[in-house]
């Protein structure tokens, strides 16, 4: 390593503000920014095996039950059915060709080939920012009786038409069964899967709309009239009467959570249920405006969400004024981004100097 390179890198790092040392993770119940009236912690996930709840979906067959799973790690391909007391009522272990727990980030409920309710698990995370050549989604028929079981899942393989990318959000349209994946990027996108999925070949994901900055989950309302995409700071609700992409009709602040990566609609469609990673993590109930909860078009909303198909390319998407509503990225986040940029530049200098 050359002395000049070391001095240049050290000087660059010195101009950045200090980042506070990370405290031991502890899921927060502090609401943070102003939340919709009636917002509350509905329950805590009590199962000590669930430490990184990274996705959530309301069961289609069992009222008051939500499917969730851990993020990447040594957790195995396991889903948990959790009720509104926070208790785990069943665990489902997935097996079958291609099934693994590489980086599970999302879960949704749709239908199987026979029209029965089915659970879709998104193994769609990519910490290498596009390093994986493909991603996978696993599907199994939702059980009529909730009990611990091992089930064979169908594996679907996907590639993005414009190259690999990281994603944490996935949703399935209850009207036509179409699957969508939303990338987690500065200039994120909404990607549509083919109308008919092929378990034998590779399914291409097509970009059809822009997405909010750093989307971490997405879900359709039970009646299919609306869908929502969440970030770490807010959730944008879209009118889906004419399908996806839809028109943004409202944006809701979300509570400050340590790593808010899960969201689903409540069983009656009147609220968003949002969660976070961490031990005994809280699940919040965020009431929706009456027009959205009633399945109406929601009026004009705040007018800040992008029109259907509008790809701004600036990475802000529907959250470009989130800071003005109290739900924007924190200064600490931008400090981390700046630090990452400088570190990458430093590595490049070291490589060139070697």
From TrEMBL:
Highest taxon of the lineage: Bacteria
Alphabetic keyword roster: Membrane, Signal, Transmembrane, Transmembrane helix
Membrane-traversing stretches: 332-351
Region of interest: Disordered: 289-324
Signal peptide coordinates: 1-23
UniProt key word Transmembrane helix: yes
Keyword Membrane (UniProt): yes
Family matches, as SUPFAM superfamilies: YVTN repeat-like/Quinoprotein amine dehydrogenase (SSF50969)
Biased composition (Low complexity): 303-313
Name of the featured protein: WD40 repeat domain-containing protein
Lineage summary: Bacteria, Bacillati, Actinomycetota, Actinomycetes, Streptosporangiales
């Amino acid at each position: 390593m050359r002395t000049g390179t070391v001095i240049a890198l050290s000087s660059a790092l010195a101009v950045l503000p200090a980042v506070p040392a990370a405290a031991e993770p502890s899921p927060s119940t502090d609401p943070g920014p102003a939340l919709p009236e009636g917002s509350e912690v509905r329950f805590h996930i009590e199962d000590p095996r669930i430490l990184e709840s990274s996705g959530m979906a309301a069961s289609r067959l069992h009222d008051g039950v939500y499917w969730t799973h851990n993020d990447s790690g040594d957790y195995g391909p396991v889903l948990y059915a959790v009720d509104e007391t926070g208790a785990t009522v069943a665990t489902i272990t997935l097996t079958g060709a291609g099934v693994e727990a590489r980086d599970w980030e999302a879960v949704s409920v749709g239908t199987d080939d026979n029209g029965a309710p089915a659970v879709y698990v998104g193994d769609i995370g990519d910490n290498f920012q596009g390093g994986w050549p493909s991603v996978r989604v696993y599907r199994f028929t939702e059980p009529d009786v909730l009990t611990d079981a091992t089930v064979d899942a169908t594996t679907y393989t996907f590639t993005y038409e414009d190259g690999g990318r990281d994603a944490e959000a996935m949703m399935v349209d209850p009207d036509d069964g179409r699957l969508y994946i939303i990338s987690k990027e500065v200039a994120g996108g909404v990607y549509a899967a083919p109308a008919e999925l092929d378990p034998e070949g590779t399914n291409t994901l097509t970009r059809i709309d822009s997405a909010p900055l750093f989307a971490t989950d997405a879900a359709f309302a039970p009646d299919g009239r609306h869908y929502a995409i969440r970030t770490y700071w807010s959730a944008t609700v879209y009118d889906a009467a004419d399908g996806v992409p839809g028109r943004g009709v409202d944006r809701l602040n979300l509570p400050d959570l340590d790593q808010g990566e899960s969201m689903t609609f409540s069983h009656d469609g009147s609220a968003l249920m949002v969660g976070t990673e961490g031990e005994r993590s809280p699940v919040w109930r965020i009431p929706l405006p009456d027009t959205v909860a009633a399945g109406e078009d929601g009026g004009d909303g705040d007018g800040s969400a992008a029109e259907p198909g509008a790809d701004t390319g600036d990475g802000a998407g529907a959250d470009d004024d989130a800071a003005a509503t109290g739900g924007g990225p924190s200064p600490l986040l931008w400090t981390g981004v700046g630090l990452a940029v400088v570190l990458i530049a430093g590595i490049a200098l070291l490589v060139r100097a070697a």
